[in-house]
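Here is one chain, start to finish.
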Amino acid sequence: MPREVRERQMMDAAVLTFGRRGYQAASMDEIAELAGVSKPLVYLYLHSKEELFTACIRRESEALLRVVAGAVEGDGPAEERLWAGVLAFFTHTAGHPDAWAVLSRQARAQGEPFATEAERMRDRIIAYVAELVAAAAQEPCDAEGIAQALVGAAESLANWANGRAGVSSGVSPERAAETLMGLVWRGLADLAPDLSKTLSTP
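Its structure:
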């Protein structure tokens, strides 16, 4: 089997294990068994538990960023692109709950250097949102501050929507997105009146 495929299997197993058991409780034996490979092979390819965890954070960060960036790119109205980005965020985190647990809880809980890896992803998402808020606003506003608030609320809602490990909350990505945008809609609507039309018919 090509190394690329083997490595992907190991990373998939590691994300699931770290996401459900936590970094400290996860073992390389468990990851190797789940991936269907020997523990020495995991060490040969990914070197250590710390490096494996870092690689998982980077891979899942890039995957989430690709989805959000793909949703907001284009020449459409900024408010529609903002809605698309929010919905894409919740759809991806709902579809990859273990990856989201790694990014939102495990990486930050373990401190450095893992927290910095997750923070880089967060900063890039905030930059996307700030750009869209500034473009949608029809008067000057603190776009970065609004983006910080939006992203922070989105993270909390994603944790709520994903429920506990193995226990579904029953909250759909659409409901999570509508909840977030409904929460901030009045303040944003004062800056961007067209946003009301977007939020009423997402």
